[in-house]
Amino acid sequence: MQKFLSATLLCGASFAIFSTAALAQDGGWVDPSSNVAYGGSAYSWDGFYAGGHLGYGFGTVTSTAAGTTQQNDLRGFDGGAQAGFNFSLGGFILGGEIDGQFTNINHTQTVAGLANEPFGLDYYGTARARAGFAYNQFMPFVTAGYAIGRGTGSYSQLGGTFSQSQTHSGWTAGAGVEYAATEQVSIKLEYDYTDLGTQTYFSGTGTPTDANFRFGAIRLGANFHF
């Protein structure tokens, strides 16, 4: 619930910012064919783009083993790249985006004075649809789609520490705001909530453990438009 509330607040703030900017320019959303920005030519969101981002993730990992379920907090940074396309329909912008990022989003606990990292997310990527409104250089948007990633679990016992990685898949959804700083470069602030589903760890080496990653990520990124 906390993650969805964060997304709602971000989306609301984005629309408030854009509404204010639009009123300052004597209008609501703007058809890309009108002449209002960049010295007489309207900004166009159409076309392909690519860029990079940095972010911070927070959520939970839920694990179940031998009939016992526990939920632990996840925290950590992520960073990666994205690419996509936009297609304008009047003031509406439709498109798609793929991204991939490495992370250190994990749950770390201390056992007998030793750091132990039972579950962590190594990397993940998404393929999403996007829809937004054009306010000249501003575009608030919502997004949703498919997510896939690799998690790693570990446990310690006499004889050493054992780890295993599994591929998770699930869904993601979010909202954000993008601003065209120049005709070729835009910056964006985005929140996404991701549920990577459940996988079983340690089925051949220890007690089988079902683990599920659910987390939100706030990202700041930049795109170059072709």
UniProtKB/TrEMBL annotation:
Record flagged with keyword Signal: yes
InterPro entries referenced in this protein's UniProt entry, alphabetically: Beta-barrel_OMP, OMP-like, OMP/PagP_B-barrel
Leader peptide range in chain numbering: 1-24
Subcellular location: Cell outer membrane
Domain (Outer membrane protein beta-barrel) ranges: 18-226
Alphabetically ordered keywords of this record: Cell outer membrane, Membrane, Signal
Pfam (any one): OMP_b-brl
Keyword Chloroplast found: no
Family to which this protein belongs: Belongs to the Omp25/RopB family.
The protein's name: Porin family protein
